[in-house]
Write a structure and sequence with these properties.
heterodimer; A: 146 residues; alpha/beta; Rossmann fold; 4-stranded mixed β-sheet; 3-stranded mixed β-sheet; 30% helix; disordered N terminus; B: 98 residues; alpha+beta; two-stranded antiparallel sheet; elongated; disordered C terminus
Chain lengths: 146, 98
């Protein structure tokens, strides 16, 4: 276990606001004896406060979650994002809000993988403001890096 | 990779999803995947997870990026597959090393 923790010192942060999905995440981490992952039960967005999100098990149903900006969370955790950082976003159409809440983070040019549900043009336009190179490996994903 | 973009074959995706729906399985299932053991709902993802075929079009980019990553942020990390892949593969390589 010690070697497992010391092998790589990367910080792993997982954001999942849905209560059911969050409980499943905790269970899956426990099943696999993974303890190094930092879990946050918040919905990353462009503002703080309560917001409505789609349920993980049924997209049409909604649930209220705590919203937070990635910039603020990283600042509170005293973490400095770099070009080596990887951010994967799969938030059922809320990626624009997530990115708008991460403007300071984007200035550091972390690598991005975004699952596309809607707002593709807005996402591309936003990322081009930060001089990202953008690729589309399929219709469902966008990859961005410097 | 033949499975690349399997969602494009919408009819096949729907057919298999329907078939899985009809199987007499519990609504939540534990599946052993290349990344670890996963608790997940009965869905098409059982098959893709079982064979390590989740999001094949970005898998290579993510795994390469993760090898060098100082921070990995998974937003909406419902199935946390890549995090598992990272953690568990690191653990395995450590074990082989010793």
């Amino acid at each position: 276990m010690a070697s497992k923790l010391m092998k790589h010192e990367a910080v792993i942060m997982v954001f999942e606001p849905d209560p059911i999905a969050f409980a499943v995440l905790q269970a899956n981490l426990a099943i696999n004896d993974v303890s190094r992952v930092k879990l946050y039960q918040v919905a990353l967005s462009d503002s703080e406060g309560l917001i409505e999100i789609s349920k993980c098990t049924h997209g049409a149903d909604k649930v209220i979650a705590n919203g937070a900006r990635l910039d603020l969370i990283l600042k509170n955790e005293h973490l400095n994002v770099s070009r080596r950082t990887l951010i994967k976003i799969d938030v059922e159409g809320a990626a624009v809000s997530v990115l708008k809440g991460a403007t300071e983070t984007l200035k550091q040019k972390p690598k991005l993988v975004v699952e596309l549900h809607s707002g593709e043009e807005i996402i591309e336009s936003l990322l081009k403001n930060y001089d990202y190179t953008i690729e589309h490996p399929s219709n469902y994903f966008l990859i961005a890096y410097e | 990779m033949p499975i690349l973009g399997y969602k494009k074959f919408n009819f096949l995706y729907k057919f298999i999803s329907r078939f899985i729906d009809l199987l007499p399985l519990p609504s939540w299932i534990t599946v052993e995947t290349p990344y670890g053991v996963m608790l997940m709902p009965k869905s098409f993802r059982i098959i893709t997870s079982k064979f390590g075929l989740v999001e094949p079009e970005v898998k290579e980019f993510i795994q390469e990026a993760m090898k060098k990553a100082d921070i990995f942020i998974d937003v909406g990390g419902l199935w946390i597959l890549y995090t598992y892949g990272f953690e568990i593969n690191e653990a395995r390589s450590s074990n082989y090393g010793f």
